[in-house]
Specification:
9 strands, two-stranded antiparallel sheet, mainly alpha, Fic-like fold, 3-stranded antiparallel sheet, 2 domains, single chain, Arc Repressor Mutant, subunit A
Length: 445
């Protein structure tokens, strides 16, 4: 028996003892994230939002096997948000359509949901009316039975059979009414339920998964009363797709106890908040760097390559890497690098090394005097820098795997590691102490 075949199938229940603590942790992490975001200027917030929505759109499509051009998505979102520091790549009409759906949902989170809105969003995903080479119904609820099947012809496995099409209209009326209701339940839990309930109804012939994830984001935005989105669950689902589909299948064959789904969904939200924290740290450090370096004369090429590394490009800064990224000769790359070393923008990692590598100087001050108990610990395969700032404040920052490896091998000095990931902490302390009141002004190069 599938869940929708049960009486009152949407009367979901869960084990509060397993859900409550996770929910509290998600709320706490949301608060911490938005507290840190308050340190960002408007332009920096828009860049952070643009990057988040880019990953949301790209990975939500990738879950369904649709690969979008990341640069096109980023350009489309940046143009609509007024972010000018993104290198423009002309987006296709399809990319623009998909982006418009996401922005409509998150920026107008407080507007009522409707059948017409859902149908128009679904149409945007399939402008030609085809999916995987076959014609599908677009802009309306499905009129055919929907079976979720995998496997080769003759050896198919049925994972789920959605409600018959005659039930879809009524089920969706109830869903929309619930979605827009003031039910006294956490927006985090409502977000998870909306996702599960929508894919269980499966109202459209295709596009249901992407719409479910958009509706989840919309309810999170309602809970936060903000159209600014800085984290997304789609990128985390994409990393764990098999588990995602397995849990949905189990829950759709269950009795309405969705504890496992809520726990998994909130764990993905915590992973998403981790990701967002790392993005904010990168933006804070980048803003701090350009504040310090705003008066230093640089060529357009130098500025462009520095920004690539400031945005988290995972590679050592060497003449070879520089020449590849800048599409210039190695001699030109060496001149660029040595010029920046002379201006104290770059510093050689290991002086006198046969194949020198360099780090960006975020602050001329050596930060090692402020941090103690520095170590790197992996969490779910991702390296994190742990330290104590001035003997009191515990620091936890996600770092690039390459930087973790280089530091542990002795190829990356501790001073450079702390400078890259923790400069914003010192800047924040200076700001709070009124030593440098303008340190968080956004300076774009």
């Amino acid at each position: 028996m599938y869940i929708h075949e049960r009486d009152n199938w949407t009367d979901f229940h869960w084990d509060a003892s397993q859900v409550s603590l996770l929910q509290e942790e998600v709320c706490r992490r949301q608060g911490l994230l938005y507290g840190r975001l308050s340190c960002l200027g408007f332009d920096s917030k828009m860049r952070a939002m643009a990057e988040n929505l880019t990953t949301d759109v790209v990975y939500s499509s990738e879950i369904e096997g649709i690969l979008l051009n990341v640069d096109q998505v980023r350009s489309s979102i940046a143009r609509r948000l007024g972010v000018e520091s993104v290198k423009y790549t002309a987006p296709s009409h399809y990319v623009d359509s998909v982006v418009s759906v996401m922005l409509d949902a998150v920026q107008h989170y407080d507007q009522p949901l409707s059948k017409e809105k859902l149908c128009s969003w679904q149409s945007a995903f399939f402008p030609a009316g085809f999916s995987e080479g076959r014609q599908i119904e677009i802009g309306k609820y499905r009129t055919n039975e929907e079976h979720i099947i995998s496997g080769m012809f003759g050896r198919e496995k049925i994972h789920y059979i959605a409600p018959v099409p005659q039930r879809v209209e009524c089920e969706m009326q109830q869903f929309i009414a619930w979605f827009d209701s003031d039910e006294p339940v956490s927006s985090i839990i409502r977000s998870a339920i909306a996702h599960f309930r929508f894919v269980s109804i499966h109202p459209f012939e295709d596009g249901n998964g992407r719409l479910a994830r958009i509706l989840s984001d919309m309810l999170l935005a309602r809970g936060e009363k903000s159209g600014l989105r800085f984290y997304n669950v789609s990128s985390q689902i994409n990393k764990d797709k098999k588990h995602y589909y397995d849990i949905l299948e189990r829950m759709q064959r269950g009795d309405g106890d969705i504890t496992e789904w809520l726990v998994w969904y909130m764990q993905k939200l915590l992973d998403a908040l981790n990701e967002a924290e790392a993005v904010v740290s990168t933006i804070l450090n980048k803003s701090f760097f350009w504040q310090k370096a705003s008066a230093v004369p640089m060529t357009e090429r130098q500025t462009e390559i520095l920004n690539l590394f400031l945005d988290g490009h995972e590679a050592k800064i060497t003449s070879k890497t520089w020449s590849t990224l800048a599409k210039c000769s190695k001699d030109t790359a060496i001149r660029d690098i040595l010029d920046l070393v002379g201006k104290n923008i770059l510093v050689e990692d290991i002086p006198g090394a046969k194949r020198p590598s360099y780090s960006i100087v975020y602050d001329a001050e050596n930060l090692t005097q402020f941090f103690s108990e520095v170590n790197i610990e992996p969490e779910n395969g991702v390296p994190y820098l742990h330290a104590v700032y001035k003997g009191r404040k515990k620091i936890r920052e996600r770092i690039l795997a390459l930087d973790a490896e280089r530091y542990q091998k002795g190829d990356l000095p501790l001073s450079s590691l702390l400078s890259k990931y923790c400069s914003y902490i010192l800047a924040s302390a200076q700001k709070n102490g009124a030593e440098h009141k303008s340190v968080f002004c956004t300076v774009e190069r």
